[in-house]
Amino acid sequence: MTLPNPAADASSPLGRRERMLLAAIAAVLALLLFGLRGGLQPQAPLEQLARRSPELPLALASGKPTVVEFYADWCEACRSMAPAMAALEGQHRGELNVVLLNVDNPRWSPEIDRYAVNGIPQLELFDRSGKAIGRSLGARSRPELASIMAALIEATPLPLLAGVGNLSPLSGGEAQGNTQGTDLVPPAQAGPRSHG
Question: CA dist 27 to 15, 34, 41, 128, 140, Å?
Answer without folding.
Answer: 19, 10, 19, 54, 44
